[in-house]
Amino acid sequence: MDSDATHRVLDPDRDPAALKALTHPLRLRLLGLLRLHGPATASELAVRTGESSASTSYHLRVLAKYAFVAEAEHRDGRERRWQAVHSVTTADNAAMLATPAGRAMLVLGRRRQLEHLQQSMEQHEADIDTGRLGEEWHAPSGIDDLMPRLTPESLRELRDTMADKLAELTARDEHDPRARQVVLLTAGLPLAPAGPAAPPADAAPPADAAPEAGRAR
């Protein structure tokens, strides 16, 4: 998938410095806050994160250097406002796992997503309790814990299908005043069976195995 106006795809071979820039937890958090809440100043983000404005300002400049954020329209001329350039940043998992920097980014990103889920769940529960979310949201919201058995091809197809459907529904609801920000965290994490590790798929057969070409079909 190629990068577009809303989706940036990082290549570990071509973008190692950009990947390294995202391995800092605060930068990931700042980027997530800008994507979730929209443009903000370094001071506003400092309040949300409990960091100093000097720290958030520095890390925002690093994110800007690698085109993750950019200056937004200012309310006045006193302080910069920043906005996320893309709504999503992804990279090919296989390529990421092939380099130390890529692997570090992949692991850190997943850990941050779990933290985001925890924070979002707490906010969702508070919004329900205080009546900020109406009853029409009670039934469709929730967290599923499913463990289907799938092939690699089926898992890829499932994720692609979900992405396509999400894009369709997002476009449909873009101008609907009833629409709300929804945190949708999906995971497809295969688990190996218990026991010794399986040999690679292309591993040579044992010496006493019958030649495949000579077997009856």
Give a quick rundown of the structure:
The protein is mainly alpha-helical and 217 residues long.
Attribute tags:
217 residues; mainly alpha; disordered C terminus
Shape: globular
Mean pLDDT across residues: 84
Largest sheet: 3 strands, antiparallel
Q: Which runs of at least 5 residues are low in confidence (pLDDT < 50)?
A: 203-217
Number of helices: 7
What percentage of the residues does DSSP assign to strands (E)? 5-15%
Strands of the widest sheet, in order across it, are: 2-4-3
What would you call the structural class? mainly alpha
Task: Provide the gyration radius in Å.
Answer: 22 Å
What is the share of helical residues?
Answer: 40-55%
Distance between the termini: 40 Å
Topology:
Blueprint: E1 7-10, H1 16-21, H2 25-37, E2 40-41, H3 42-49, H4 53-65, E3 69-71, E4 81-84, E5 88-91, H5 93-97, H6 100-129, H7 152-173
Parallel strand pairs: 1-5
Antiparallel strand pairs: 2-4, 3-4
Helix pairs in contact: 2-4, 3-4
